[in-house]
Amino acid sequence: xxxxxxxxxxxxxxxxxxxxxxxxxxxxxxxxxxxxxxxxxxxxxxxxxxxxxxxxxxxxxxxxxxxxxxxxxxxxxxxxxxxxxxxxxxxxxxxxxxxxxxxxxxxxxxxxxxxxxxxxxxxxxxxxxxxxxxxxxxxxxxxxxxxxxxxxxxxxxxxxxxxxxxxxxxxxxxxxxxxxxxxxxxxxxxxxxxxxxxxxxxxxxxxxxxxxxxxxxxxxxxxxxxxxxxxxxxxxxxxxxxxxxxxxxxxxxxxxxxxxxxxxxxxxxxxxxxxxxxxxxxxxxxxxxxxxxxxxxxxxxxxxxxxxxxxxxxxxxxxxxxxxxxxxxxxxxx
Length: 334
Known about the structure:
Blueprint: H1 9-18, E1 23-28, E2 30-43, E3 50-63, H2 64-74, E4 77-81, E5 83-84, H3 88-99, E6 108-109, E7 116-123, E8 126-133, H4 141-154, E9 160-164, H5 173-185, E10 190-193, E11 207-208, H6 212-219, H7 226-240, E12 244-248, E13 254-258, E14 263-266, H8 279-292, H9 297-311, H10 322-333
Parallel strand pairs: 1-4, 1-9, 2-7, 5-6, 9-10, 10-11, 11-12
Antiparallel strand pairs: 2-3, 7-8, 12-13, 13-14
Protein name: D-glycero-beta-D-manno-heptose-7-phosphate kinase
Pfam families: PfkB
Domain Carbohydrate kinase PfkB: 23-322
């Protein structure tokens, strides 16, 4: 099936090839996603709740860690800066990083904080409940100073910056101000997967990648039609004086609002949707590394749209490899 877009396959292949060797600093909240898989065919006699008979369990990287794993899969090199506790779950997370080829030398340890850990119980491919272990208090003291020091040391040598904000306390205003100032001063593209509570700290970034609900919440208006989408998208871009805002819209694709006044809509490429967990991580990863590789904003977002279409076909936090991305592009443009 042909894809009615102005994007040329050789150019997109060239950009994907350039992902290799790009060093991207990933700053944000780290977490481990834990899954219990089973079946449910009865209700508990103790309370009106389903009983799930667990058949297997698995774990995967979440948050900024999943962003880093996506970059590795794409052939790029992440420089991951974040905070872990000193608990057993921190070791599980470190083991998961090692298994995915993510360098952990820039991580800061804080014994006063639990490592963020999320358990999802899934029965017959449906999520039943989620349990979270976490602290959302802002980092301070030695942990804060450690993160600031890592930014000052590592960011100048990077080709891009990703801010992965899940509201778990790592991205204080001091951290965000330092990171954005350092990157802007060196002309490093900044891609932000934002949290609503920090939105005004992202002023002047290259691109934000909120989903439709997040963008509407920030701008005080639900996106229900084309008119409200235009108001929210352009309003967000102008409010933050960002180079562009990319609003992800699930089955309705993505909408890109550029400071130049150009608007681009990208229809979804996904034919099947099983789980959107981690799709936002994939989008911001691909956008950032594509910009670092020389893509313009529509090209970067087109690549991200195809990568998102790959990951939402899998249950559980997933990533898209460079090979999978090329295959998706080929199926659309060949």
